Amino acid sequence: MTVDYRGELMVMGRKAKQAARRLALMSTEKKNRCLEAIGSALVQRTQEILDANAQDLAEGQKANLSSAMLDRLRLTPARIEEMASGIRTLVGLPDPVGRVDSTHLRPNGLQIQKVRVPIGTIAIIYESRPNVTVDAGVLCLKAGNAVFLRGGKEAFHSNRILAEIMLTGGAAEGLPDGAVQIVPWTAREAVTHLVRLNECIDLVIPRGGESLIRAVTENATVPVIKHYKGVCHIYVDAEVDMNTALDIIENAKCQRPGVCNAVEKVLIHERVAAEFAPRLAARLGQRKVELRGDSRFCALVPSAKPASDQDWDEEYLDLILTVGVVDSLEQAVEHIALHGSSHSDAILTRDYLSAVRFAAVVDSAAVYVNASTRFTDGGQFGMGAEIGISTDRFHARGPMGLDDLTTYKYVVWGTGQVRP
Prior knowledge:
Number of domains: 2
Mean pLDDT: 95
CATH architecture of the largest domain: 3-Layer(aba) Sandwich
Structural class: alpha/beta
Largest sheet: 7 strands, parallel
Low-confidence stretches: none
Radius of gyration: 24 Å
C-alpha cells in the first residue's frame, strides 16, 4: 500500500504547530510539572518499555547487528531510571523562555527589549539509542517547542512506546496534544518529506553518523543544525609540560574513543618531538592504541605505521591515532584548518602568547588550552543537558543546551511614538 508521506506529515505538522503555540505560552511551573509527570510515567511503565525493547533486540539479532549496536539499543531498568533522573535534573534548570537578554532606551523614548522565545517545531532525526527519544523530546519541551522524533528502524518499537509515554504522561498536567510526535514510518522517503516540510517545521537536528547527517542536509529545505564528524586535533607546543601533555592525550584518545570529541590527530613541535614522540608511543602502547604517522614521526617511532593521505581526514572512533611533526605553531594551525572538522581542537603549552595565538586563529566550535577535547559536552560545560553539538557558524555552535533551542524577538515599548 502506497503511503502519502507528505500528506500524513502535513496533518501531523499542523497539530505540532498548534501545540507549539500553546507551549510557548506555558509557564515554567506548568512545563516542569509536565516533565515531572513524564519522568514518573517512564518509571511506572518500565515493563512496557522493556517489552517493546525486547522486540527491537530480537529483530536486531536476526538482522545481525553488532554487539556494540545491540548494547546501544538495549534498555534496562537502570537505564530507564537514568532517563527519569535526567528529566528531574532538567526540571531544575533555568527556563530561557521569556528571558530578557537586553534592554535599551532610544532617544525618542522607545524601549527595545530582546526576548528569548521558542523556535517552534523541531524535528530530531537520530539513530540507534532509544534514550535519545526521551532526552531530545524533553529538552525541546522545556524550551517550549513541539517536537517530531524520527529514530532508526532498529529502535522502532522502543521509540514508539517512549514517545507515547511522554505525550500521555505529560497530558495529565496539560501538555498539549501534538507536542510530541513519533514519525511512524521507517522508510527513507518519509525523512525526505519531513525535512522539506517548511510549512510546519522550523528546524531539523540530525544526530548520528556522517552518512545520516549528510543525507539529511542534502535533502532538507528546512534549516539544519549539524556536525558531520569530529576530527579533533591536539597540538603539542615547543614549550610544554610533557607529563601533563601525556595525561591529556591519553584521556582524549582512550577515555571513550568512539565519540565525536575524542582526539584523532596529534601534532608535535619539532623542538620536543625527539623526546616526546617515543614517550607518547610508550604511554599509548599500554592502552593498545595503533599509531600512524608522517615520515618524521615514524623515524622517531619505527613501530608506527606510515599514514596515508586519507588518514589525516579520517574520524576513526577507535583506538587509532595519527601523529605528525610540525615546524611551528603556524604550521600546526594551517594543518588543522586543512584537515580539521571545526569541532574541538587543543594546544598544550606553557607559553601564554602561543596559547592566545592558537585560540584566536583556530576556527573550531571549542578551542582548548591545556585540557582534553573530551570536555565538549553540554553537561561538562554546565548546561545540564544538550541536544547535540553544532559545528555550524550561525544560531548555535558547540554543545547545544536549552538556550540554543530558543531564538529571540524584539519587543518594543512605546508611548505613542510615530516615525518622522
